[in-house]
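In the present case, backbone shapes were mapped to integers, as reproduced here:
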Amino acid sequence: MHHAELLAKLQATEANYDPLVKLVRTPLTATYHTALKPDTHPVVHALYPSACYAYELLQAGGKEYAQRAAEILEVVVSCQDQDPTRGTYGIWPYFYEETLDEMDRPDWNMADFHGKKLLLIAKHYAPLLPQPLVSRLRDAVYHACQAIVIRNVGPHYTNIAIMGALVTLLGGELLGNEELCGYGIRRLQAFYAYTADIGTFSEYNSPCYTPIAIEELHDIYTQSESAEAVAVAERLLDIAWHMVAWHYHPATGAWGGPHSRTYGTMLRPNEKVFLADALKDDPAGIRCPEKYRYLFSSPEERYFTEPTLHEKEAGYQNYATTYQNGRLTLGSYSMGSMWNQRRNLLGYVAAGDGKTVSVQLQFLKDGKDFCSAIFSGVQFRRQVLFSFNLATDNGAWHQDLDIINGRFRAKDLRVRLLLGGDAAGLDVPVAQEGMRLAAQLGDTALQVEAVLDSGSYGPLSVQVERAANGVCLDYVIASGEERNFDFHTLERAVWVFVFSLGEEQALPAVRLEQEGLWVTATVQTGDGPMAITVPQVPRKTGELYRENQIQLPKGLK
């Protein structure tokens, strides 16, 4: 970040700084881990954003900024649990208003996030701070490192696996602790071996977390004293940038799908800034390798699939497929829950006049993404064949923090294709013929059809409506008065759809075959058949992941 940009950011944050509490105020938007509610705490004092503010104050320089940073850091450090006998040892709460004991499941990731900021402050800006505070910062880094070692996250948790390696490696170097350094190097090596075995990150293609992973790897590459760690970080950076560049879609400026995790279907401002800065020739900043830069402007057609899991560990494989041309990008997974941070089927279309329309598949319970719905799909270029099963052991809005185990009360269940981005301000003609919907996004046609409606809640109905966030193409499973739902009692609950984006011809024919409790849907493609085979009865999530089957077109095997 250039100095002028840093000063502008500091000025914006200063408006939210509370000089009495000595922390940054922020609206309460967090939904995970905190027990605070917006109606009682609309504004809170956030600890991690305050630590980031202190770091940026020290980056900007100057006595006044350094004094404010010191005041903030005194408060932040005081909120860490430094008692090694407690289960929350080494971590921080989210907010000043809520202790760790008062939270709804404290977030252990805070050891990694805070640990990184505090070690970088102690490493680079100690001369600007009072010596007693520097000593407390070093102690806080040590406690954060211990929390990371105790938790010992595996290599499947991409960004935290990397960040924990960074904090323990650089923290160990800062503290002169060889045991922590050794742990950090071993953790980084294990992550590389795991990632190289898959061929990509298991937290695959995440607009919110891949930049974090790149930042952590960049810090290891540029700051570690270990030549071995630097070499491993360099190889991992190449894997990360390969993933980013091949998914970027120049015509829409979108980070193409599918996304393992994201906080918004359209790129957020900080994600746009990350990409823009990485393409600048700033030797001091994070830079995309030269060999991948052409992909950020090339309109060439791209079509590829790759595994995203360590199959022996998971017991199944999940494939990610992406297609792009000069007008659109379309990506899909072969399986996944319909969690609100996941994008199992996602497209972006250049709709003319600089407008971009996003196409996001959702499964909704009372208007919210529903992670007890399990997606299975297979993609051939601009066509996707997909289905939904229902899980009997999952959650509603979160698979760990909101477990419902297939029993809940609700008013509405539906499948939705949300046409978002700039769609709300565009004329989007939609035609319906039975269970088939066709929409026109500029010069690009979208088509979708429900080809199997095997549900115990009655036949699907179709609804099309405009909303503030775009155009909703809905297949309604159940709607009306609030009632009880129990997936354990259902004799059948599977829905199969065929979808295309940018195809002028009609949707392909789908052959359906039922054998016992299983149904197979097949589409003939230019590269042979693609198919999905799924059970009609709800099952546990792990069973659906292991037993739902897909057949990739032969060109993608």
About this structure: The chain has a mean pLDDT of 95.
